[in-house]
Design a protein that fits this description.
Length: about 450
């Protein structure tokens, strides 16, 4: 089945030149002391905010400088049809950028900023799903000064095709649903999921998935009988196996570190997260591909915090340190979208427990993708929808075509989507009850 058409609209290489006032004035802005930022808007999409570097007025933007991504918008087929409608009343789409001086407010982002000016970039998106296009690359005046002394903004705006495979769970992961591939109005079953408890009497394939080769110096599995295992407030042993249509297991997500309430509380803390191992078949055994940690954030956000890292065996086995591909927070109440997108923030990957980037962007014309020999992921990788607590969740998963060479590739991302969805339940306050499908092991174990 063919993938679904998607397009990435990318805004990069921002820089600002502001004339220095010859006399002190309230409206004067000195490039060396005034921080700047911008709000980037595309109709029907959430606005994005980015810092805008200031450069001296006499400088030119250097040729060949590394492209730094400021914002990205992902358009599906419905978005493209809406923007390219044939109606004479339909307005042509455009990208709108508002530039501000001053520091961003701590809560609302722009409260303390002063508007310097606005820039609009027209977009012709017809046929863009099959070809790349640059809409603007260079300097543009900001403001209405007709004498040539206005501020100037440098930016690159381009679009590129980004086809994706789209999968939809037909039910909640803990209910062992089918997974369909979606292409337009066509729904085709491609996987089945089997949820189970690793510590129950069911010795299925996922129970045997932990017979891994001891090739890593880092221990990814908890020791049995640990203090975490003895804790009275814990959720453990969840496992979900993804099968292809022939019934063969092609991926596993298994809870390898229990989700345990912090001492004196009812929540899983960031300092003591639960963890999943995502495994793929290889050489007659299960091999680790990724590790997902999750916890419950404190404070006003009260969200689901997570970190996903690529395992050493999956990035060439050159180091025991994992490569962090995603780390963020999702609303526990509203849910959101789990995303792995290496085109964000310059496309740099950061090794776990390290402050240095694993992928240097130097010399790359495409946001620093994949210069390190074992960085296999670049640009948009995958996303998965997630509902808030207590809501029916049927994850919709998008995976870039570049990341899928075989069934097992797609299955690994489906297993990861199931794990992040189940983490919303695993991180619920321990004062709240889980649905019966997630508590069955308590009866089996007599607890």
């Amino acid at each position: 089945m063919d993938p679904c058409p998607f397009v990435r609209l990318l805004v990069s290489n921002l820089a600002l030149k502001i004339p220095v006032a010859s006399k002190p004035a309230r409206s004067g802005v000195h490039p060396s002391s005034s921080p700047c930022f911008c709000k980037i808007r595309l109709k029907n999409f959430p606005q994005q905010t980015s810092v805008v570097p200031l450069i001296p007025p006499e400088n030119q933007f250097p040729d060949g400088q590394t492209q730094t991504l400021a914002a990205s918008f992902h358009l599906n087929k419905a978005d493209l049809e809406k923007y390219t409608g044939k109606s004479i009343f339909a307005r042509k789409p455009s990208l709108k950028i508002a530039i501000y001086t001053g520091r961003r407010g701590a809560t609302c982002g722009i409260n303390s900023g002063r508007l310097l000016g606005r820039v609009t970039v027209p977009l012709d998106l017809a046929g863009i799903e099959s070809k790349s296009c640059v809409f603007h690359n260079g300097w543009v005046s900001v403001g209405k000064d007709a004498k040539g002394s206005s501020a100037q903004l440098h930016l690159n705006v381009r679009a590129e095709p980004d086809p994706r495979f789209v999968f939809q769970f037909d039910g909640e992961p803990e209910c062992s649903p089918q997974v369909f591939q979606i292409q337009g109005n066509i729904r085709q079953p491609v996987f089945t999921c089997k949820f189970s408890f690793r510590n129950s009497g069911d010795r299925n394939q996922s129970s045997r998935s932990f017979q891994l080769e001891p090739s890593s110096s880092r221990s990814w599995l908890p020791s049995h009988g640990s203090e975490r295992e003895r804790s009275g407030k814990e959720r453990k042993g969840w496992s979900i196996t993804v099968h292809d249509l022939s019934g063969s297991p092609v991926a596993v997500a298994s809870m390898v570190t229990p989700f345990v309430a912090s001492p004196g509380s009812d929540r899983v803390s960031r300092s003591n997260p639960g963890a999943w191992l995502i495994l793929r078949p290889g050489d007659g055994t299960w091999k680790p591909w990724g590790r997902l940690e999750a916890w419950r954030e404190r404070g006003s956000s009260d969200g689901l915090g997570y970190r996903f890292e690529l395992m050493p065996e999956a990035n060439g086995g050159m180091s025991a340190a994992g490569i962090v591909l995603a780390e963020s927070t999702l609303s526990s109440n509203k849910g959101g979208k789990f995303v792995i997108d290496m085109s964000s923030n310059g496309g740099q990957l950061t090794p776990a427990n390290s402050n240095s980037p694993a992928c240097s962007p130097r010399g790359s014309g495409d946001f620093g993708y994949g210069l390190w020999p074992y960085c296999m992921y670049k640009g948009f990788v995958m996303s998965s929808t997630l509902e808030g607590e207590g809501k029916c969740s049927k994850p919709a998963v998008e995976v870039s075509v570049q990341q899928v060479n075989c069934t097992e590739d797609a299955a690994a991302f489906v297993a990861l989507a199931a794990a992040i969805d189940l983490s919303m339940d695993a991180c619920r306050l321990f004062s709240q009850k889980l649905r019966k499908e997630l508590c069955m092991h308590q009866d089996m174990l007599g607890g």
